[in-house]
UniProtKB/TrEMBL annotation, chain A:
InterPro entries: VWF_A, vWFA_dom_sf. This is VWFA domain-containing protein. SUPFAM superfamilies: vWA-like. Residues 1-86, 128-241 form the VWFA domain.
From TrEMBL, chain B:
The lineage of its organism: Bacteria, Bacillati, Bacillota, Bacilli, Bacillales. Keywords: ATP-binding, Kinase, Membrane, Nucleotide-binding, Serine/threonine-protein kinase, Transferase, Transmembrane, Transmembrane helix. This is Serine/threonine protein kinase. The chain crosses the membrane at residues 292-312. ATP binds at K53.
Length: 241, 316
């Protein structure tokens, strides 16, 4: 199962529409979830609408949350999406086997077994979550909370029975014209990672759409991290403790 | 975790099941779990009280029902069948709400009691050792059936007469070896960097230790949690808090073992607790000296020392 989890606090303003990008992700089997971080009600109405639309196009869920609730929200969305993805797959089978198209159509006595299968698969299936972090200027005070949420998510995923990996990106990248930067390649354990966002230079633009496309690319070339190791300059070397 | 289940059911509402037509009259809201709300209801005709949990997500709620059923089955098997725990779950059905949507619900035995915090406020802290012991017994029973309770906290323990506790809200109950399904940060082993979130016996025992801190030192626990950075949250900090608490000092050793996952299982933890409980019961607790008296003593000792020092120095 593949997920992108976008954490942002505002509107995209450069490049391809993030809604189109999310639809592309969905088309190749990647679910896109979006968490909007709002602290002083500082998200514009337009931003809220965009967040919802990105998630809808990406086949995922969206939530607005305050910084202090970020960890819980991130985990809740990840878990719910896993269950939903499995549920959709199981429901397709339901039609063949039981003639019902949703679980709700089944009488309660028959639901138990189906839900047991969903729970089991949710716990044991392999899961990859690419975290895509908006690092535009306004997010700066929230990055600590973001990092904590990522570590907390990693801990929960580690406790699953199925293999789970995360990767972390931020956007825009530090170099001029760079839409997105890999901070952490696929890993199942980040406890040894010192700092996820060392010395970030915040810039004003928010290229959400291009960044999503970048992550889709990353998913599709499974060996991205190894091949481009040299080009990721100082960022990667910081992870070696 | 939040639900999108925002509406409430006013007193007198009749909840009729879509499949089995069981009919229940709402009395009042009892509480709220992560997956839905729990109401006190009366079954029509029978005039018996039950607790009814109603949610918005069929899969989430059914998953809870599965847990309850399999715990009941396992307990029944162990006790050789025909045990009263079999009647824990009474009915599972759907209800069409006033919003036109169908909501899944299940009905279970109504447990009369106060939440653990309220019970100790009302009946006195002297009940704490025995309630704690009984609670460890409940956890041991659950663990022996292969389950971790998961979301153990003050709100999820109801205490009936004579300190008999019951666990409520099985939304976090998880089979050993799987990732704990629901937890509350401050009670969570992972949050305190004390281990994984994989379900095992010591996960619950860790939460139990935090629950003791929460009951006796809630303010200092909240301050501790707010004051530490994610990477500096450790079981050491909790153990330190326990060791410096007047109320918890007698069994800070027990808490330490629970915080560091050193008990093999809940039975062992209960046995250790029992030893402490008896000691605490037989040795009449001498009233500790009030703080002002200790302060006064320190001051007078200092004055005495200074006087002697002066006497010695001024002596020819």
């Amino acid at each position: 199962m593949k997920q992108i989890l976008l954490v942002t606090d505002g509107c995209s303003n450069v490049g391809v529409s993030p809604v189109v990008a999310a639809a592309q992700a969905h088309a190749v089997g990647i679910t896109v979830n979006v968490v909007g971080v709002v602290d002083q009600g500082d998200i514009a109405e337009f931003g809220t609408a965009e967040i919802e639309e990105i998630a809808r196009a990406g086949g995922g869920l969206s939530r607005l949350t305050q910084t202090r609730q970020l960890s819980q929200t991130v985990q809740m969305l990840t878990r719910k999406t896993v269950v939903q993805t499995i549920q959709h797959a199981v429901q397709r089978e339901l039609k063949h086997v039981l003639g019902a198209s949703t679980i709700e159509e089944l009488p309660p006595e028959k639901r138990g077994e189906v839900v047991r299968v969903i729970d089991d698969l949710s716990e044991t299936s392999r899961l990859r979550v690419a975290l895509l972090i908006d690092a535009s200027a306004s997010m700066k005070p929230k990055l600590h909370a973001v990092e904590e949420a990522i570590r907390d998510l990693a801990l929960s995923l580690q406790s699953r029975q199925g293999g789970s990996e995360i990767a972390v990106f931020h956007f825009p990248g530090s170099a001029y014209g760079e839409d997105c930067k890999l901070d952490l390649d696929w890993t199942d354990n980040i406890s040894g990672v010192h700092s996820l966002f060392p010395r970030l230079q915040m810039r004003g633009t928010t290229p959400t759409g291009p960044a999503i496309l970048h992550v889709i690319d990353f998913y599709q070339k499974g060996d991205y991290g190894n091949r481009k190791n040299d080009e990721t300059d100082g960022m990667m070397s910081d992870y070696v403790v | 975790m939040t639900t999108s289940f925002e509406w409430t059911l006013p007193r007198g509402t009749i909840i009729r099941g879509k499949w089995k037509q069981g009919s229940y009259r709402v009395d009042r809201l009892l509480g709220e779990g992560a997956n839905g709300k729990v109401f006190l209801v009366e079954r029509e005709r029978e005039r018996m009280l039950y607790a009814l949990k109603i949610g918005s997500d069929t899969v989430d709620l059914q998953s809870e029902v599965n847990v309850l059923q399999s715990i009941a089955r396992q307990k029944q098997k162990r006790s050789g069948g025909g045990s009263r725990t079999g009647a824990f779950l009474v009915d599972v059905d759907d209800f069409r709400g006033s919003d036109g949507k169908e909501h899944p619900f299940y009905v279970m035995r109504y447990i009369k009691g106060l939440t653990l915090g309220d019970y100790l406020v009302r009946n006195g802290k002297e009940w704490f050792p025995v309630v704690g012991f009984n609670l460890l017994g409940k956890l041991a029973e659950l663990h022996e059936a292969g389950w971790t309770f998961g979301d153990l906290k003050v709100e999820n323990v109801l205490v009936g007469d004579y300190g008999r506790p019951e666990l409520v809200d099985y939304g976090g109950a998880t089979a050993f070896g799987k990732g704990v399904r629901q937890f509350t940060e401050i009670y969570d082993r992972g949050y305190w960097n004390a281990g994984t979130r994989t379900a095992d016996a010591s996960y619950d025992l860790f939460s139990f230790a935090v629950l003791c801190l929460q009951l006796h030192e809630s303010r200092r626990l909240a301050q501790l949690s707010a004051g530490l950075l994610p990477q500096t949250r450790t079981p050491d900090e909790l153990a330190k808090l326990a060791a410096t608490s007047a109320a918890l000092k007698p069994f800070s050793g027990w808490l330490r073992k629970a915080l560091y996952g050193e008990f093999a299982n809940a039975r062992e933890a209960a046995a250790a607790w029992q030893q402490w409980m008896h000691r605490a019961g037989t040795v009449p607790a001498s009233a500790p000296a009030p703080r002002w008296m200790k302060g006064l003593f320190a001051v007078s000792a200092a004055v005495l020392a200074t006087t002697i020092y002066w006497l010695l120095r001024s002596a020819p």
